[in-house]
């Protein structure tokens, strides 16, 4: 029941990647949009994220042909996603970040590796050398105006397979809208119409005027600093704060059977019966217990632990947002309990707490959280965040040369973020739990993980 993901043989330390070409792609004409409004959710997500999509060789689409199709499709998509060719800027009058939609271009980089895709080994196990498959800055190779909101690097392997590494500013897309972008990229590359016409009306998530904070928001950190106005030396202790630490790193694999067993266990307790728990809910409850109790503070079971997790609010608002909404339509839900309860309560109780955290995200609660961001800025605030890539379905996108062999985030080791991501074959229904903790905490987490899984 549950397995510790077997560490692969020694990972390639150097993929021997050389850049062959780097260019900027522009709209065929200037965008009519001067600037794009960014919601209070977008405002706090002003950082870059990277994903890598691996493709096996297809004799009908050797890398040179596939790369040209990707390049042409990206250029065509800029007509639809005009803001991507813009830049993030701070509006000095409003004190808010916005997209300056001046046609400054997105990055497109062509590279080659001296290795085959098979020589990379296990793609599920994050390899630090995968950083070579993503271009994070363009000013090393080109004279670039500002920092591009999107950079795509395509890297050919000796076997004919290739990787597509995509860096975007998180303010451009959440996970759902990024998948729609990939589906549109795949469709246009295949000469088809858009898979989904995006909705760019980010004003749909604007704060109310005047803002009305109608709920307490312990999941948000109160900072009475106007958005965008924090100084360089301001210390913001939020969940995105990244301080270097010496951490152990492990992946715990849960099979579809393990998840079914957790669901069954969640129905056994006296407080169950509040709806059918999802795989995400039961895995999150299990991980929450292990993470909270792994902290080396055994004598303080009265300590409160708070788990944070993202909830898609598209269908929760009244009226609902269009499914094709492009911006960040996710808010942070939370659950809080004393460590004593996390240790002694049945799984059903913890599942109820996580479920209640998700159910709390009604239209009014979401609007209140957005308004909170208008008043206090409102960074997520808790012990740790579960970031789930499990059900996003990037592997399901059908390109002319086939679906990706695997799609994954470029992984960073953070003790305050635990990642859930799918196995190589998503149809198996299992999930990988990626954890980074100090050595003593990791040893304790591992013991708790299997103890509570089997008890």
UniProtKB/TrEMBL annotation:
Signal sequence residues: none
A molecular function (GO) term: acyltransferase activity, transferring groups other than amino-acyl groups
Pfam families: Transferase
Domain of life: Eukaryota
Similarity field: Belongs to the plant acyltransferase family.
Protein name as it appears in the record: Omega-hydroxypalmitate O-feruloyl transferase
């Amino acid at each position: 029941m549950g397995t510790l993901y077997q560490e692969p043989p020694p990972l390639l330390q150097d993929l021997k990647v050389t850049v062959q070409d780097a260019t900027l792609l522009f709209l065929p004409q200037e965008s009519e949009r001067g600037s794009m409004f960014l919601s209070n959710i977008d405002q706090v997500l002003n950082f870059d994220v990277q994903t890598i999509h691996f493709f096996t060789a297809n004799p009908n689409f050797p890398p040179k042909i596939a790369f040209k199709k990707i390049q042409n499709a990206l250029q065509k998509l800029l007509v639809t996603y005009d803001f991507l060719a813009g830049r993030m800027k701070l509006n000095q009058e409003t004190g808010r970040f916005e997209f300056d939609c001046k046609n400054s271009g997105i990055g497109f980089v062509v590279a080659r590796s001296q290795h085959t895709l098979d020589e990379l080994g296990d793609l599920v196990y994050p390899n630090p050398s995968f950083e070579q498959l993503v271009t994070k800055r363009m000013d090393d190779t080109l004279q670039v105006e500002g920092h591009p909101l999107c950079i795509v690097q395509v890297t050919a392997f000796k076997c004919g397979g290739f990787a597509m590494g995509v860096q975007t500013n998180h303010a451009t897309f959440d996970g759902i809208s990024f998948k729609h972008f990939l589906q549109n990229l795949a469709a246009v590359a295949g000469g088809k119409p858009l898979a989904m016409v995006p909705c760019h009306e980010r004003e749909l998530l604007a704060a109310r005027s005047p803002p009305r904070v109608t709920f307490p928001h312990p999941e948000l950190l109160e900072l009475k600093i106007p958005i965008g106005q924090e100084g360089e030396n301001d210390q913001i202790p939020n969940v995105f704060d990244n301080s270097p630490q010496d951490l152990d790193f492990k992946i715990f694999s849960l099979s579809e059977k393990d998840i079914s067993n957790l669901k069954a266990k969640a129905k056994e307790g006296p407080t169950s019966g509040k709806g059918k728990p999802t795989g995400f809910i039961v895995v999150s409850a299990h991980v929450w217990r292990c993470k909270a109790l792994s902290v080396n503070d055994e004598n303080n079971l009265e300590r409160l632990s708070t788990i944070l997790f993202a909830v898609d609010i598209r269908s929760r608002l009244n009226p609902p947002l269009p499914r094709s909404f492009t911006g960040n339509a996710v808010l942070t839900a939370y659950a809080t309990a004393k460590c004593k309860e996390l240790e002694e309560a049945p799984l059903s109780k913890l599942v109820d707490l996580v479920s209640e955290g998700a159910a709390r995200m009604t239209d009014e609660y979401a609007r209140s959280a957005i308004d909170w961001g208008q008043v206090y800025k409102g960074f997520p605030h808790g012990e740790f965040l579960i970031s789930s890539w499990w059900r996003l379905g990037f592997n399901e996108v059908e390109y002319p040369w086939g679906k990706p062999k695997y799609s994954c985030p470029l992984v960073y080791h953070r003790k305050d973020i635990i990642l859930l991501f799918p196995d190589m074959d998503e149809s198996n229904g299992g999930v990988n739990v990626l954890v980074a903790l100090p050595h003593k905490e990791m040893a304790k987490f591992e013991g708790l993980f299997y103890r509570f899984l089997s008890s």
